Amino acid sequence: MSTDDDRHDALGLAELVRTRAAHPRELVDRAIARIERGNPRLNAVIHRMYEVARQQADAVDVTSGAPFVGVPFLAKDLVSTWAGERQTSGSRLTAEWVAPHDSELARRFRAAGVIPVGKTNTPELGIVPVTEPLLHGPTRNPWNLDRTCGGSSGGSAAAVAAGFVPMASGGDGGGSIRIPSSCCGVFGLKPTRGRTPLGPDAGEAWQGCAIEHVITRSVRDSAAMLDATHGEDAGAPYAAPPPKRRFAEEVGAPPGKLRIAFTKAALLPADVDPACVRAVEDAATLLASLGHELVESHPTFDGEQVAVDFLTMLVGEVAADVAASEQLVGRKARVGDLEPETAVLARMGHAVPAVEFALASRRLRTLSRHIAPWFAGFDAFLTPTLAQPPLAIGALKPKAAEAVVMRVAQRLPIGGVLHKLGALDQMAARAWAFTPFTAVWNVTGQPACSLPLFWDGGLPIGVQLVGRFGDEATLFRLASQLEVARPWKDRRPPPL
Fold first, then answer.
1. Domain boundaries, the chain
2. Is the pLDDT at 422 greater than 90, yes or no?
3. From 80, 89, 152, 480, the catalytic residue
4. Is 489 an annotated catalytic residue?
C-alpha cells in the first residue's frame, strides 16, 4: 500500500482493511507518525493512546463487518469517556482524572470498528468557541498557524484537516462541531437532539442543547457513523424520530428540487464579515445552478433576548459542570484550578436566581414554537456558519482590565454584583460576535452542518445548512450533492 493513505476517507481506509490491501497496524502506525510529525506545531492531540491502539490493531477481525474496521480515530477530550484513559476536559481541576468506563457513545464508536489513537484538545469544559485552554495551550489552525481552529471541538477539526486521521469525535452545545469545521475546512454535522447517546452518566447536557457526533472529511463518513451510533439509549429523556432508511443511503441520492431559504443577516446580534456574506452568496448561486429554488428569508425572533437567555442558561450549566468536576476529584476547586473566565461564569451561575434560570430555559424552549411554522415552508436553510473568518489566536481572551476584574472575581463572592451590573449582557454581546448563526439550532434541536465550500485569503469560510427537526436525510442528500459539485477533499493545508 502507498503511504498516501491519509488521502482516503474513513470508509476508504476500512475498505483497504477488508480487502487486506492494508493491515490495521499499518494504518495506526502511519497515523501515529503523522501526529508525531505535525502535532508539535498544531497542538491538536493532547493525550496519546498509542500502545493500546497498536494492541487493538493487532487484534482486529477484518471480517467483522464493522463499517470502519481498523480505522485510526481521535476522540475529543470532553463528555464521552474512554475506560482507563485520562479525561481532562481542558481543565487543571480534572487534569489527572481517569475515566472508569466507556460512555455509551464510546462503546458504539468501538463497535463501529474505529481504533482511538489519542484525544484532542478542547477549551476548558467546552465553554468558548476557540481552543486555547491554559492547561494544554492553543490548538492552531492548519491553514494558518496564527489563526484559531475554532472550538470547542477544535483539536478534532484541526487533526482531521491536517490529515492526522480521517475522522474524530466532537460535541456541539452551541456550535462546537460546526464552528471548528468552518475554521478548518472540514465537514461537521450536529445531529437532531436525542439522535446520539449521552448515557450512562447523563440524561441530557446543557438543557438538551448539546449532542455529540464526528468531524469528517467526507459526507459519507458522517452518515455512516451516524448509522452506527444512533438509536435507543436506555434511560434517555427523549429520542429523535427514527430515520426512514439508513443515512448512508441518502448520500448520493437525488435530493430533488428543494426550496431553500438563505440569509446573510446574523440571527443573534452581530455584524457579518463580507467574506462570510460572499460565502453564502456563492453557495446560494451554486444551489440555484443545481436546480433548487432559493428564497432570501429567515425566521424572526428577538435575537437579543435569545442571546442573553442562552448565556443565562450557560452560566448555570457551567456552575453545575464545575460542581460535577469537584465531585469527580473529591475536593473543591482552588484558585488556579479553573481559568478566570470559567471561575467567573460559575460564580455568576450561582448568583443567577433559580427563577431567572428557569424563565430563560422556558423562553429558549419556546423558540422552537416560533421557528417551526416558518420552517414548514422550506426544505433547508442556508446561512454563514460564522460571522467572521477564523480569528487570530488570543482574539477572544479578556482585555487587560477585564482580566483584572476576573482575577478578583474568582476570589470574591461578587457574582451577583457582576450580574446586576449587566456583565451577562456584555458577555453575551461579545460571545455572539463570532458565532451568531449556530446556537439557535442547539436550542431548537434541529440538525445542522457546516460545509467547506468557500475559501478567502487562504482560509476556509464554512456555510451552514439547517434541516427540519429529525431530517438529517435531506441534509445528507444536499450536502453530498454539493460535495460532488464543489469537491473539497483534495484541498489540503500546507504540510506541517
1. 9-261, 303-377+397-432
2. no
3. 152
4. no
